[in-house]
Amino acid sequence: MEMKLNLTKVVNGCRLGKIKSLGKTGDHTMDIPACLLYTKTGCAPHLTHQTLHTIHGLPAMAQLTLSSLAEHHEVLAEYKEGIGKFIGMPESLLYCSLHDPVSPCPAGYVTNKVLQKSTIIGVIEGGDVMEERLRSARETAKRPVGGFLLDGFQGNPATLETRLYLLSSVTAELPEDKPRLICGVSRPDEVLECIERGVDLFESFFPYQVTERGCALTFSFDYQPNPEETLLQQNGTQEEIKYVAHTKKIKTTSYNQEMTSFEINLKEKKYQEDFDPLVRGCSCYCCKNHTRAYIHHLLVTNELLAGVLLMMHNFEHYFGFFHSIREALKSDRLAQLKELIRRQAS
Amino acid sequence: MAAAVSPTSLESAPRIMRLVAECSRSRARAGELRLPHGPVATPVFMPVGTQATMKGITAEQLDALGCRICLGNTYHLGLRPGPELIQKAHGLHGFMNWPHNLLTDSGGFQMVSLVSLSEVTEEGVRFRSPYDGDETLLSPEKSVEIQNALGSDIIMQLDDVVSSTVTGPRVEEAMYRSIRWLDRCIAAHRRPDKQNLFAIIQGGLDADLRATCLEEMTKRDVPGFAIGGLSGGESKGQFWRMVALSTSRLPKDKPRYLMGVGYATDLVVCVALGCDMFDCVFPTRTARFGSALVPTGNLQLKKKQYEKDFLPIDSDCACPTCQKHSRAFLHALLHSDNTAALHHLTVHNIAYQLQLMSAMRASIVEKRFPDFVRDFMGTMYGDPTLCPTWATEALASVGITLS
């Protein structure tokens, strides 16, 4: 049963739709734009099945990385019941990427592997060369693939505009009715840029990276809040941005350099006595049960629970963002969402 | 110096323990503790969450495993985040959002574990902080003050702890000092209606010193007694004899808390000897080293032999880890850098400990505890007669034979 993408609408290049006939029995569907659940060795980082399933809005599809599973292929062969059951996600849709986006190989060194009973995704390569990109896109589009992976578009912000231009040209060559997945792009602002250029699926490693640096996602994706909320959020957001900008000036060589303005750093002393949740109104387990002060304590004392709670929040927050993208597209408000995110990007 | 408590005040001590059943052969008891944050069935194993967290397990997970009391540590929490902050957070319960009971140790054990950073005088223990070199004095009064701020349901006296391998006059000094410090803790305790202060019997491995300590401390008006100063480097032969001596002299209607005991065999034997409460870092710590506890011992899941073992850790275990995952998957996960591997095992090991206590309790209530002990030893050692000598002797001393 071949998976099929039905587009509901296309607005300014942004595609809203449903991928149907997914999974072994062919009766799963998935809304796009969407992100995939990031895993390490077949398991969400820091999270057991129990803690993972407290997260609202879990993606329908999880991403496995071949690089983390390849060493276990003999075990899997003997197991005989498939990777989904082996990792404890027998009901989940699974996408296997060759590389882990957090520790990837250089682009262009990807080789296709044949996977039985799975849908093959064609990879678009070509580096920064337009001609090569177009050639890759056209040729791959001729093949009977289930969808397309746009590889090699990740990189540092300085070359973003060039890469986005390439991206538009590439997706223009691809058939409309097959999903386009991009690897290595996960930041909220970059996600929106890519959606505007015809991308449907993203990896969710960004919330994981935020977790690893002891930070929590706090950016707003509420593009139509009530007036009081707007005021409160604006005040909050402005304060956060000011503080982050300040720390960035002094800590040029610390790990914090990678920190974005979409997050707060719970290790900072100012959170020591902050008894608010990470994000007011967030319905995740961490925000419903714990305070910034507690997370701060866990980080300062190097306790494992810090990673667990931050991962739960960061995933839920990020999945909420994707939900808001779909809602915004449905109600033709993506421009508002984009403006809101742009204001919060550093 | 606080006035000594009169022996006649025995009657006014709060009775927090209700005995439900007693083994007719051994000293094993099944009971129920009535604590401010709810009832706790005994015998009970209390997992250790030193720094206001159960090492990677959420409060919800711990609650779902059936845990109703766990430990926090005064020494650690007193330093980070400190009692003032915890008080602002509505106590330790509020700070870590744990709805059930908490027991806090006084900081006494750190005197042994951090002996190179500490100095003991009659005043208290002077610690040098490993984090910033600052010196703190932990006196009986200070320890109780911190524990009052933490708001734990059971608080421990500050005791003068010496390693069980120490001999000579220091042991006697520590025993007498512990009695004096108990009286100072009782006097300093601001919240006897909300928090239960336990005494800790010391005396090392000397029967006479232990007996003296027991005689003196049981005159004090406290809701419960702990047996301390054991579970260090002493031989098991000496260990069980001190436990048995202690339980023979402790009042029946108050809980007996044996500190630092957590290996399965030790738990079974010490329940037979009449202990009700236990704590130990072992099950949670060993989980983080990839070791899963099972009725036959433990599985070192990182080892190659589990690479293709598609069974769960324990087919009879109802914990979330065993319900969902195979040894092979856990083996693979343990060789990755995903911390979830550790959490899976922590969940299982806590489940194992709590299951063991629950099974023991049921056997006491159903009047078949000696059979339970024989079955347990048979499973653990292959045959009840292959049980370690010290355990056989200890059990025999309370009327349980293994052959």
Automatic annotation (TrEMBL), chain A:
GO terms for molecular function: metal ion binding; tRNA-guanosine(34) queuine transglycosylase activity. Residues 116-344 form the tRNA-guanine(15) transglycosylase-like domain. It is a peripheral membrane protein. Binds 1 zinc ion per subunit. It is found in: Cytoplasm; Mitochondrion outer membrane. Keywords: Cytoplasm, Membrane, Metal-binding, Mitochondrion, Mitochondrion outer membrane, tRNA processing, Zinc. Its cofactor is Zn(2+). GO terms for cellular component: mitochondrial outer membrane. Zn(2+) binds at C282, C284, C287, H313. GO terms for biological process: tRNA modification. PANTHER family: QUEUINE TRNA-RIBOSYLTRANSFERASE ACCESSORY SUBUNIT 2. Non-catalytic subunit of the queuine tRNA-ribosyltransferase (TGT) that catalyzes the base-exchange of a guanine (G) residue with queuine (Q) at position 34 (anticodon wobble position) in tRNAs with GU(N) anticodons (tRNA-Asp, -Asn, -His and -Tyr), resulting in the hypermodified nucleoside queuosine (7-(((4,5-cis-dihydroxy-2-cyclopenten-1-yl)amino)methyl)-7-deazaguanosine). Heterodimer of a catalytic subunit QTRT1 and an accessory subunit QTRT2. Belongs to the queuine tRNA-ribosyltransferase family. QTRT2 subfamily. This is Queuine tRNA-ribosyltransferase accessory subunit 2. It comes from Ursus americanus.
From TrEMBL, chain B:
Its EC number is 2.4.2.64. Its cofactor is Zn(2+). The keyword Cytoplasm applies. Residues 26-379 form the tRNA-guanine(15) transglycosylase-like domain. Its main location: cytoplasm. Substrate binds at D105, S106, G107, G108, F109, D159, Q202, G229. Belongs to the queuine tRNA-ribosyltransferase family. This is Queuine tRNA-ribosyltransferase catalytic subunit 1. It comes from Ursus americanus (American black bear).
